[in-house]
Amino acid sequence: MELDPDYTFVPLAPRHYMGIENKDTQASFRKWGLHNNISIQDYCFNEPFQPYNKYHIAEKFFKSKEVASSLLLKEGEIWTAKGILADSVEVKPVPCTVLNTSFFDRLADPENGVVSISGNIRQRYEMEIEGFVIYDNLRAMLLDRNDKHYNLFSDVERDEFIFRLFQILALGGSLCQYEDQLKPYVDVTRKMYRELVRVHKKEATSDLSIGTTVLQVVARDSQGEAFFPSRPEHRQNIGFLLVDGSGRQITTLLHQFGSFHW
Fold this sequence. Notes:
By secondary structure, the protein is an alpha+beta fold. The chain has helices spanning 18-21, 23-31, 54-62, 65-68, 105-108, 137-143, 155-159, 161-171, 183-196, and strands at residues 9-11, 38-45, 72-75, 78-81, 88-94, 123-129, 132-136, 199-201, 208-210, 212-220, 226-228, 238-244, 249-255. The strands form four sheets. Strands 1, 2, 5, 10, 11, 12 and 13 form a seven-stranded antiparallel β-sheet that branches. Strand 12 (238-244) and strand 13 form a beta hairpin.
Protein backbone atom coordinates (compact mmCIF):
# COMPACT_ATOMS: atom_id res chain seq x y z
CA MET A 1 0.00 0.00 0.00
CA GLU A 2 1.45 3.35 -1.04
CA LEU A 3 1.54 5.94 1.73
CA ASP A 4 0.44 9.52 1.13
CA PRO A 5 3.39 11.95 0.93
CA ASP A 6 4.30 13.67 4.18
CA TYR A 7 4.10 17.20 2.82
CA THR A 8 5.74 20.08 4.60
CA PHE A 9 5.53 23.71 3.47
CA VAL A 10 7.77 26.75 3.54
CA PRO A 11 6.44 30.26 2.81
CA LEU A 12 8.23 31.98 -0.04
CA ALA A 13 9.17 35.65 -0.23
CA PRO A 14 6.37 37.72 -1.81
CA ARG A 15 6.46 37.26 -5.55
CA HIS A 16 5.98 40.23 -7.85
CA TYR A 17 2.98 39.47 -10.05
CA MET A 18 3.71 42.19 -12.58
CA GLY A 19 0.43 41.95 -14.49
CA ILE A 20 -1.63 41.97 -11.29
CA GLU A 21 0.38 44.62 -9.44
CA ASN A 22 0.69 47.12 -12.30
CA LYS A 23 -1.08 50.45 -11.95
CA ASP A 24 -3.78 49.75 -14.54
CA THR A 25 -4.86 46.50 -12.90
CA GLN A 26 -4.80 48.07 -9.44
CA ALA A 27 -6.87 51.00 -10.72
CA SER A 28 -9.42 48.48 -11.99
CA PHE A 29 -9.40 46.71 -8.61
CA ARG A 30 -10.14 50.02 -6.91
CA LYS A 31 -12.96 50.81 -9.30
CA TRP A 32 -14.50 47.35 -8.87
CA GLY A 33 -14.22 47.34 -5.07
CA LEU A 34 -11.59 44.57 -5.08
CA HIS A 35 -8.57 46.52 -3.84
CA ASN A 36 -7.25 45.15 -0.55
CA ASN A 37 -9.72 42.27 -0.78
CA ILE A 38 -7.49 39.82 -2.68
CA SER A 39 -4.50 38.02 -1.21
CA ILE A 40 -2.01 35.84 -3.13
CA GLN A 41 0.77 33.93 -1.34
CA ASP A 42 3.31 31.34 -2.44
CA TYR A 43 4.75 28.30 -0.66
CA CYS A 44 7.09 25.50 -1.65
CA PHE A 45 6.63 21.89 -0.59
CA ASN A 46 9.00 18.98 -0.22
CA GLU A 47 7.49 15.85 -1.76
CA PRO A 48 6.40 14.93 -5.31
CA PHE A 49 2.81 15.78 -6.22
CA GLN A 50 0.38 13.96 -8.46
CA PRO A 51 -3.20 15.14 -9.05
CA TYR A 52 -4.54 12.18 -7.07
CA ASN A 53 -2.78 13.67 -4.01
CA LYS A 54 -4.94 16.82 -4.22
CA TYR A 55 -7.18 16.16 -1.22
CA HIS A 56 -4.26 15.09 0.92
CA ILE A 57 -2.06 18.08 0.10
CA ALA A 58 -4.89 20.53 0.80
CA GLU A 59 -5.53 18.99 4.21
CA LYS A 60 -1.83 18.92 5.11
CA PHE A 61 -1.47 22.53 3.95
CA PHE A 62 -4.13 23.98 6.23
CA LYS A 63 -3.07 21.81 9.17
CA SER A 64 0.57 22.95 8.88
CA LYS A 65 1.92 25.20 11.65
CA GLU A 66 4.25 26.86 9.12
CA VAL A 67 1.27 27.76 6.95
CA ALA A 68 -0.90 28.87 9.88
CA SER A 69 1.80 31.25 11.14
CA SER A 70 2.11 32.99 7.76
CA LEU A 71 -1.24 32.65 5.95
CA LEU A 72 -2.88 36.06 5.70
CA LEU A 73 -6.58 36.30 6.53
CA LYS A 74 -8.85 39.33 6.33
CA GLU A 75 -9.93 40.94 9.61
CA GLY A 76 -11.82 44.16 9.02
CA GLU A 77 -9.61 46.11 6.62
CA ILE A 78 -6.40 44.36 7.73
CA TRP A 79 -4.75 41.20 6.41
CA THR A 80 -3.06 39.36 9.26
CA ALA A 81 -1.67 35.90 10.06
CA LYS A 82 -4.00 34.50 12.73
CA GLY A 83 -2.24 31.21 13.32
CA ILE A 84 -5.38 29.10 12.85
CA LEU A 85 -4.89 25.38 12.31
CA ALA A 86 -7.63 23.72 10.30
CA ASP A 87 -9.73 20.98 11.83
CA SER A 88 -11.40 20.15 8.52
CA VAL A 89 -10.83 21.07 4.88
CA GLU A 90 -13.45 20.86 2.14
CA VAL A 91 -11.93 20.44 -1.31
CA LYS A 92 -13.59 20.84 -4.71
CA PRO A 93 -11.44 20.23 -7.80
CA VAL A 94 -11.77 23.09 -10.30
CA PRO A 95 -11.23 22.32 -13.99
CA CYS A 96 -8.46 24.37 -15.54
CA THR A 97 -8.17 23.54 -19.24
CA VAL A 98 -8.75 26.83 -21.07
CA LEU A 99 -5.61 28.12 -22.81
CA ASN A 100 -6.63 31.69 -23.69
CA THR A 101 -9.35 34.29 -23.37
CA SER A 102 -10.91 33.49 -26.74
CA PHE A 103 -13.09 31.48 -24.35
CA PHE A 104 -14.98 34.76 -23.82
CA ASP A 105 -15.40 35.64 -27.50
CA ARG A 106 -19.05 34.61 -27.39
CA LEU A 107 -19.69 37.43 -24.89
CA ALA A 108 -18.12 39.97 -27.26
CA ASP A 109 -20.28 38.83 -30.19
CA PRO A 110 -23.17 41.33 -30.50
CA GLU A 111 -25.32 38.55 -31.99
CA ASN A 112 -25.45 36.96 -28.53
CA GLY A 113 -26.99 40.05 -26.94
CA VAL A 114 -24.63 40.67 -24.00
CA VAL A 115 -22.91 43.61 -25.70
CA SER A 116 -23.88 45.99 -28.48
CA ILE A 117 -21.88 46.53 -31.69
CA SER A 118 -20.00 49.33 -29.91
CA GLY A 119 -18.81 46.89 -27.24
CA ASN A 120 -20.99 48.44 -24.55
CA ILE A 121 -22.70 46.01 -22.18
CA ARG A 122 -26.43 46.04 -22.85
CA GLN A 123 -28.64 47.38 -20.06
CA ARG A 124 -31.79 45.66 -18.84
CA TYR A 125 -34.52 46.01 -16.23
CA GLU A 126 -33.21 46.04 -12.67
CA MET A 127 -33.54 43.11 -10.30
CA GLU A 128 -31.63 41.68 -7.33
CA ILE A 129 -30.10 38.22 -6.97
CA GLU A 130 -28.05 37.12 -3.94
CA GLY A 131 -27.67 40.76 -2.91
CA PHE A 132 -26.30 41.83 -6.31
CA VAL A 133 -28.23 44.46 -8.24
CA ILE A 134 -28.47 43.28 -11.85
CA TYR A 135 -29.13 45.95 -14.43
CA ASP A 136 -27.19 44.68 -17.44
CA ASN A 137 -26.96 41.51 -19.49
CA LEU A 138 -23.46 40.59 -18.33
CA ARG A 139 -24.46 40.20 -14.69
CA ALA A 140 -27.70 38.51 -15.76
CA MET A 141 -25.56 35.98 -17.67
CA LEU A 142 -23.52 35.40 -14.50
CA LEU A 143 -26.32 35.13 -11.94
CA ASP A 144 -29.81 34.69 -13.41
CA ARG A 145 -30.49 31.08 -14.34
CA ASN A 146 -33.76 32.17 -15.95
CA ASP A 147 -32.07 34.66 -18.25
CA LYS A 148 -31.56 33.54 -21.87
CA HIS A 149 -27.91 34.67 -21.77
CA TYR A 150 -27.12 32.31 -18.88
CA ASN A 151 -26.86 29.41 -21.32
CA LEU A 152 -24.05 31.01 -23.31
CA PHE A 153 -21.81 28.94 -21.03
CA SER A 154 -22.53 25.38 -19.92
CA ASP A 155 -22.29 24.34 -16.27
CA VAL A 156 -18.99 22.63 -17.08
CA GLU A 157 -17.59 25.83 -18.60
CA ARG A 158 -18.77 27.86 -15.63
CA ASP A 159 -16.72 25.62 -13.36
CA GLU A 160 -13.53 26.47 -15.28
CA PHE A 161 -11.00 28.45 -13.26
CA ILE A 162 -10.83 31.21 -15.88
CA PHE A 163 -14.61 31.69 -15.66
CA ARG A 164 -14.41 31.80 -11.87
CA LEU A 165 -11.76 34.54 -12.05
CA PHE A 166 -13.86 36.49 -14.55
CA GLN A 167 -16.89 36.24 -12.28
CA ILE A 168 -14.98 37.56 -9.26
CA LEU A 169 -13.91 40.58 -11.30
CA ALA A 170 -17.24 41.28 -12.97
CA LEU A 171 -19.29 41.02 -9.77
CA GLY A 172 -16.72 42.98 -7.77
CA GLY A 173 -16.81 44.10 -4.16
CA SER A 174 -19.52 45.64 -2.00
CA LEU A 175 -18.93 49.13 -3.44
CA CYS A 176 -18.32 48.39 -7.11
CA GLN A 177 -18.40 50.79 -10.03
CA TYR A 178 -19.27 48.55 -12.95
CA GLU A 179 -17.71 48.93 -16.39
CA ASP A 180 -19.75 50.00 -19.40
CA GLN A 181 -17.66 47.73 -21.64
CA LEU A 182 -16.70 44.06 -21.50
CA LYS A 183 -13.04 44.49 -22.48
CA PRO A 184 -11.61 45.64 -19.10
CA TYR A 185 -12.93 42.51 -17.38
CA VAL A 186 -11.47 40.21 -20.03
CA ASP A 187 -8.13 42.06 -20.02
CA VAL A 188 -7.65 41.74 -16.25
CA THR A 189 -8.83 38.13 -16.30
CA ARG A 190 -6.12 37.43 -18.92
CA LYS A 191 -3.41 39.05 -16.77
CA MET A 192 -4.39 37.13 -13.66
CA TYR A 193 -4.83 33.79 -15.41
CA ARG A 194 -1.51 34.09 -17.22
CA GLU A 195 0.35 34.73 -13.96
CA LEU A 196 -1.43 32.19 -11.78
CA VAL A 197 -1.55 29.19 -14.14
CA ARG A 198 1.47 27.34 -15.53
CA VAL A 199 1.27 26.32 -19.19
CA HIS A 200 3.79 23.89 -20.66
CA LYS A 201 4.45 22.38 -24.07
CA LYS A 202 4.24 18.64 -24.60
CA GLU A 203 7.50 17.42 -26.08
CA ALA A 204 5.99 14.83 -28.40
CA THR A 205 3.38 17.07 -30.05
CA SER A 206 4.34 20.64 -29.06
CA ASP A 207 0.74 21.06 -27.93
CA LEU A 208 0.16 23.34 -24.96
CA SER A 209 -1.38 22.04 -21.75
CA ILE A 210 -1.93 23.37 -18.25
CA GLY A 211 0.16 21.92 -15.45
CA THR A 212 -1.60 23.61 -12.52
CA THR A 213 -4.06 21.72 -10.34
CA VAL A 214 -6.72 24.11 -9.06
CA LEU A 215 -8.72 23.43 -5.91
CA GLN A 216 -11.51 25.45 -4.35
CA VAL A 217 -11.19 25.04 -0.60
CA VAL A 218 -13.00 25.88 2.61
CA ALA A 219 -10.87 25.43 5.74
CA ARG A 220 -12.62 25.33 9.13
CA ASP A 221 -11.26 25.63 12.65
CA SER A 222 -11.98 23.37 15.65
CA GLN A 223 -15.26 25.22 16.24
CA GLY A 224 -16.42 24.57 12.68
CA GLU A 225 -15.96 28.23 11.69
CA ALA A 226 -14.68 28.81 8.17
CA PHE A 227 -11.56 30.98 7.97
CA PHE A 228 -10.31 30.37 4.39
CA PRO A 229 -12.45 31.95 3.20
CA SER A 230 -14.59 33.38 5.99
CA ARG A 231 -18.34 33.42 5.31
CA PRO A 232 -18.11 31.05 2.31
CA GLU A 233 -21.88 31.12 1.88
CA HIS A 234 -21.34 34.39 -0.05
CA ARG A 235 -20.33 33.55 -3.63
CA GLN A 236 -17.65 36.29 -3.65
CA ASN A 237 -15.90 34.91 -0.56
CA ILE A 238 -13.77 32.28 -2.22
CA GLY A 239 -10.42 30.58 -1.71
CA PHE A 240 -8.30 28.56 -4.12
CA LEU A 241 -5.14 26.50 -3.91
CA LEU A 242 -3.11 26.37 -7.12
CA VAL A 243 -0.68 23.46 -7.09
CA ASP A 244 2.32 23.38 -9.44
CA GLY A 245 3.57 19.81 -9.13
CA SER A 246 6.65 20.20 -11.33
CA GLY A 247 7.85 23.27 -9.44
CA ARG A 248 6.66 21.94 -6.07
CA GLN A 249 4.95 25.23 -5.34
CA ILE A 250 1.51 26.02 -4.05
CA THR A 251 -0.19 29.39 -4.40
CA THR A 252 -3.14 30.62 -2.37
CA LEU A 253 -5.70 32.94 -3.92
CA LEU A 254 -8.20 34.35 -1.46
CA HIS A 255 -10.92 36.90 -2.14
CA GLN A 256 -13.05 38.34 0.64
CA PHE A 257 -16.03 40.43 -0.36
CA GLY A 258 -15.53 43.79 1.34
CA SER A 259 -15.85 47.52 1.22
CA PHE A 260 -14.00 49.89 -1.08
CA HIS A 261 -10.57 50.70 0.32
CA TRP A 262 -7.89 53.13 -0.85
